[in-house]
Description:
By secondary structure, this protein is α+β, with helices and mostly antiparallel strands.
Amino acid sequence: MSKKTNRNKKIKKKCPSCNKKNIFSKENWKGEDNTYCKYCGSKLNKIKRYKFSMTSSNQPISKTKESFYEATRPALNLYKKESKKRTWILSSIVIIFILACVFIFNNQDINTLDKINNGLNESNYSDLIPPTTIQDICSKIQKVPSWCQGEEIIGSGYKPNWNVTYLLDNKICFLYSTTCSVCHKQIEGFGDEWKTYNSSGYTAQCW
């Protein structure tokens, strides 16, 4: 009687996947690893669940920041070096440009002054010394315009062919009057050179 009871003994197993109860006869039970659920077809062995290790939330965040800084520090240092190098190069270029401009402008000023001085020397205008008695000569002339060289009166009247360069080269004085129309015509004939002639001291207003 006991043998028959053991043959008909049923094995009950709950499926870990669908959570339904399975009933097997002893002949159909092949163990958990080799027996499948009648409802979902999954093995009846227990599913192993792995626990993932979680880092503690109390861990300070500063370590992450420090590790990030340590990782990026070489790149940052390289960028700083490159930035400093570019700044030095730009500064050097600007300084060289400023010095070059100053040098060019100074040379231009020197060359201009040299040209003026050379022009004066070539024209013999630097040693122009009007006669000290030019005003005394006014008392000797009888009409204007009159012309004198040194203390000697050499001519009078309008001279259309006499320009300022000729007069200064030969140290000829021009004696005139503001009420003389011929004098005004002579001065107009000098044009812009009248200022140079008048400032040289070789002109005198007599009347």
